[in-house]
Sequence to fold (178 residues):
Amino acid sequence: MYISEVMTTAPEDERGALETRVYRELEKLNIKYERVDNDKVETMEECVEISEKLGAEIRKTIVVCNRQKTEFYLVILPAGKRFDSKLFAAMMRTARVSFASPEDMEKVIGLTPGEASVMGVLNDTDGKVQVVIDKAVADAEWFACNPGANTTHIRFKTRQLINSFLPAEKHKPEIIML
Fold:
């Protein structure tokens, strides 16, 4: 798998709209980041080499919703952690949740399965998505994810995600132990 050297600046070439907005927002918030370009990845197993190169685990991001599709949750977990929908629903005080369809994901965060990222909150201007972060992720020094394209990955301090980036995007994360 191709993985570039680690870089500390935004790409100079043309990128997708969301990825471009992510770099602009990180710079505006003075959040220093490192990034690598890589071959397209769609599974957590494919991200292992990227995690090693960045020195931070790429986090698993899933989007779930209630049956009525009135409540959406962007859930961030350690890469190897299994998502327990019953436990999650109980913790969020909702009857039950299931994985959001690709169409619903596209609607609420502008991303589809295989490219889901917390950076999708930039597309959630209506605040329809509740960001939920596993405590193990919240407690880690580094946070790594894709910036809206699964051909690039970035890392920055987790506290900057929680205390700067998400609040700037009007998303207050809920931190729970899943």
The mean pLDDT is 96. The beta strands are 34-37, 60-66, 72-77, 97-99, 129-134, 142-145, 152-157, 174-176. Residues 18 and 148 are 6 Å apart (CA to CA).
